[in-house]
Automatic annotation (TrEMBL):
Residues 2-32 form the 4Fe-4S ferredoxin-type domain. This is Ferredoxin. Ferredoxins are iron-sulfur proteins that transfer electrons in a wide variety of metabolic reactions. InterPro entries: 3Fe4S_ferredoxin, 4Fe4S_Fe-S-bd, Fe-S_cluster_ET. The keyword Iron applies. Gene3D superfamilies: 3.30.70.20.
Length: 63
């Protein structure tokens, strides 16, 4: 199964992924996005968030 991973060093906390796929990503108190439910949204919707991240901080990990 593929799950999304956020590189916290790259994330600038713009919030785009949390708006597009709010079941999967959440902004933490430190302003960085984190994955709360790896399969919270459909894979193609998560892919949209990956494509929309301005700093390419989200990648897929095979698990
Ligand atoms: S879209 Fe990218 S930069 Fe913006 S909050 Fe999500 S992971 Fe961070």
């Amino acid at each position: 199964m593929k799950t999304p991973v956020v590189d916290k060093d790259k994330c600038i906390g713009c919030g785009t992924c949390t708006v597009l796929v709010g079941k999967t990503f959440k902004l933490r108190a430190d302003g960085k996005a984190e994955v709360i439910v790896p399969a919270g949204d459909e894979e193609k919707t998560i892919q949209e968030a990956i494509d929309s991240c301005p700093v390419q901080a989200i990648t897929w990990k095979e698990s």
